[in-house]
Design a protein that fits this description.
With 367 residues, the chain is α/β, with parallel strands linked by helices. Helix content is 39%, strand content 15%. The relative contact order is 0.17.
Amino acid sequence: MNIPYLELKKVTALHTDEIQRAVAEVVGSGWYLQGQAVQQFEQHYADYIGTRFCVGVANGLDALTLTLRAYMEMGKLSEGDEILVPANTFIATVLAITENRLKPVFIDVDAQTLDLNLEALQQAITPRTKALLLVHLYGRCTYNESIQTLCDSNHLLLIEDNAQAHGCRYGTRRTGSLGHAACHSFYPGKNLGALGDAGAVTTDDEALAQTIRSIANYGFSEKYIAQHKGRNSRLDEVQAAVLDVKLKYLDEENRRRMDIARTYYNKIKNDAVRLPVPMGEGSNVYHIFPVFTSCRDDLQAFLLNKGIHTLIHYPVPPHQQTCYQEYNHLSLPVAEQLAREELSLPLNPTMTHEEVAYVVDMVNCKS
């Protein structure tokens, strides 16, 4: 049996007819930027997330970068301010901070829950700390009331990196509506993926939404009148049309992800493989299903030999990257251990029951 980690052609094929009709409508309209398809998707996605505003941008990194930049333009952040960020995250989260000449302050995570270490988080706060960039990594909701209380009591902006958690919930609310703003990536492999790069910011803050929209469109407040030193970061009509189709099926496909994850949790019994602590219903949408083992490379090679393709998210944490040499001296032991031990098993809505069972069997038979 051959099981790819993710076969995007099969994911797209779930909705091919509707996607083709939606794209054909955009092509036929003759309007390819800043038109009706973008407006419609922005409204539908804001309604889905539960915020007043959604601003479509070119990609997830731009969503993060533009949000921080907008807060600087609004006077809520200044160059050199400290932004708390999990040490266990994709590098884009940190790139957005340093791109704006802000200072990332890396916080280690809990080895079992993968959530931020609250004690370390509290100890890291200084008079220069102005925001927490909370990452819902792997599709797991990492928000809780303690984090909200900490942000409120220290007057911190709470910004969600929701790139991997489309549709995830905290109680009755969705991630992406929990903080002051949230940043979303619609990279093709995401739970809600475009057919290319795309991103968005959701917020209830009208001034923030307007500022992001302006900066992302050359800084214009009106045509050819630049209020800010802007850039070009716009969600295009084709990607918006594709996303609007796929949004209708997101909850259904997330439920299939949860079913597969439930099987993994119930049936993987290899003592050498550690699974993350399970979460409540809806609080994990399983963009990634990570397992952890000190024999990670051996397990990956074994599974590949059996036809099962896996990935590693992520082999080098941001503070150990060459481009961040000024942080290479930091010791963040849990994040570093997770980077050494993490292996992502295939999990997506196109997998069959037989494929899922085969993955389980092969993981269990590796001694």
